[in-house]
Design brief:
The structure is a homodimer of 362-residue chains.
Chain A: H1 3-15, E1 17-18, H2 27-40, H3 52-64, E2 69-73, H4 76-88, E3 93-96, H5 101-104, H6 109-112, E4 117-120, H7 130-134, E5 142-146, H8 159-171, E6 175-180, H9 183-190, E7 203-207, E8 218-222, H10 224-236, H11 245-258, H12 262-277, E9 282-285, E10 293-298, H13 302-316, E11 318-319, E12 325-326, E13 333-338, H14 341-344, H15 348-357
Parallel strand pairs in A: 1-11, 3-4, 3-5, 5-6, 6-7
Antiparallel strand pairs in A: 2-8, 7-8, 9-10, 10-13, 12-13
Helix pairs in contact in A: 2-11, 4-10, 9-12, 12-15
């Protein structure tokens, strides 16, 4: 892409309303908000993970999930690698879905850093079931379950399927860890309190920069002993920062206001999905969506999809998606759609009409 | 310590002027400053380490040191573990001073995470010399040299000793890495441009939250290939955050103004040290100091030192140090003294008198 086109796109993007998440993240604006919040609440900075704000927030999120304790960490990649290492021990072996973040996006740190081995459980296109775990004939130290499974469009097992899977794992003496990068989204779909998750999982990772909309940050939740050992690994990985104040304050100050909104995001995702699935050339994965995210496949090549997006943006003032990637070898393109604050102000019909216009039918 | 005493101490501390560093770090106030700076400069946030501000700052610091490239990282612990792993390869072997941060303060991540082995080179009480390296009869993949050596009071080898050490390492095919946690302090003592360091070192780590006074943050500098591999490890360790904006903006916005001051800090440290070493019961390590930091030993037990500190704070309004630890089995106590902005407004005589008062001689 030449520079001129990139500049024109950036200007076009800036003029348009987005429909994804809570709008384009703006960490600079977030800093201004967080600084004012810290001043208003006379927040003292944490030093190497110790301080009233960080420890209070850890206790609060742990209590929400019915877990003994929590530990705020710079990233989920750090937290989940640590969780697998602590549960499995040296040279251990764990199971995960083939599309897990640990398998696809972390340069296999679980192996290179921690010397762990992994078995991929179940097929990529759907969530993991108890039957998939039953087919694993080796002992596993831990099983990592992502709810929802992002890479196949945010799919969730039913509550009963989840209970069965976790039950089988526990019967076999396997520790069960929840990859809760989007657990706020999943909980709104299950419509059960977070604390009902506690008996299903031995440990939980949650994220604050995605659905919650804060700066970078994550938390690991679990038993005190588990987190005591986790802290050693956090130190070894260079995750025990002099202060995490910007990250903790951003997450803690957004948490209470954002959490109750996920129910509305999900309801809105369902009505929007119904409108979109009626548009010829648009296909949803899954259809209907399980949470407030879904994959959208278009009967357009990725290159054509991006050109159409720009044309529709010029015509309607709506910016529908960022990059589009190939769905498979079919020539279709794919992108993720996350329903958050940004879409709440735009009518389903307006968004569906804009998607229709991608195919030149406006 | 009971809660009441802790509260009284906190209030006393808040009423006093400190003499360490640049005063008590206040990340909340720093956030306010950084937010305004970002708004003024219309800074766009970096996303997973890509963005104009972060890449520009990396290029700037790399150029300062005559290195090909730089990579901003959440912490030095992360950066230095990575540097050793990249230079040494799997199962590799490196050398370091017995008081190195990697040996004392990182839960031996170099071994547990990276599977590396280490040889401790030279004695703890002084810096490492070429003769110490000459005694290592095994091949080493890398040698880590900290300038100044914090744990023995901020000692520096002479420039000639340093050149000899690095030269011997290179003769033996050993990659030389600079632990530059306090390189701003060291450079002010050597009075040589940073770029003269480039031929001595294959890679460099620098820190921004200590002498520079920014929020948490570090940078790894070196050849492009080295940093390309380092990025893989950064990802594996969970150090590739969604955004590092608060940290990068804090460092980048403080850097130019702070850097030229280290010369004055060092000059001031020398006059202050001369005044302090004349106080009976006060001993400096080293004496005179090599940089703008030193260790101060008191002829008081740690418990008595802390009580005396509080008494002197009440009487003089000066807060001389934080915790005091046992020097050894002699019954003396020890703390670090860092000369920065905080001490610049208080006369040597006033500080020396306050130290004298620790022994009840005021």
């Amino acid at each position: 892409m030449n520079d001129e086109l990139a500049t024109r796109r950036k200007e076009l993007r800036a003029r348009c309303r987005g429909i994804q998440w809570h709008g384009t993240p703006d960490a600079g604006a977030e800093l201004t908000r967080v600084a004012a919040w810290c001043a208003e609440h006379e927040v003292q900075q944490d030093v190497y993970g110790e301080g009233e704000l960080i420890e209070g927030f850890e206790a609060k999120v742990a209590a929400l999930f019915g877990m003994e304790a929590g530990r705020f960490l710079p990233s989920g990649t750090m937290g989940q690698g640590i969780a697998m290492r602590v549960w499995c021990g040296p040279g251990g072996h764990f199971g995960m879905h083939p599309t897990s973040h640990l398998e696809l996006h972390e340069e296999r740190g679980y192996s290179h850093l921690f010397g762990l081995r992994a078995t991929l459980v179940g097929p990529a296109r759907r969530v993991m079931f108890a039957d998939d775990l039953a087919k694993v004939s080796e002992p596993l130290g831990a099983l990592l379950i992502e709810l929802p499974t992002r890479e196949n469009g945010g799919q969730l097992p039913t509550w009963e399927q989840l209970v069965e899977l976790c039950g089988l794992a526990h019967e076999r003496g396997i520790k069960v860890h929840l990859d809760g990068a989007r657990i706020w989204e999943a909980q709104a779909a299950y419509e059960r309190p977070f604390e009902e998750l506690a008996p299903l999982f031995d440990s939980v990772y949650v994220s604050f920069y995605k659905g919650i909309g804060a700066l970078s940050g994550a938390m690991l939740l679990g038993p005190r002993d588990f987190l005591g050992e986790a802290k050693l690994w956090q130190r070894r990985m260079g995750g025990n920062l002099y202060t995490l104040l910007p990250n903790v304050a951003s997450a803690a100050s957004r948490f209470d206001a954002r959490l109750p909104r996920f129910k509305a995001y999900r309801e809105r995702a369902l009505t929007l999905a119904a409108a979109l699935s009626a548009v010829p050339g648009v296909h949803l994965i899954p259809d209907p969506p399980h949470v407030n995210m879904m994959h959208v496949a278009l009967d357009l090549s990725p290159a054509d999809a991006v050109l159409a997006r720009d044309r529709v943006a010029e015509a309607t003032g709506l910016w529908l998606f960022g990059a589009a990637r190939p769905l498979d070898l079919s020539g279709q393109s794919l992108f993720e759609l996350h329903v958050g604050d940004a879409a709440m102000d735009v009518a389903d019909e307006e968004i569906a009409a804009a998607f229709g216009a991608l195919f030149g039918r406006n």
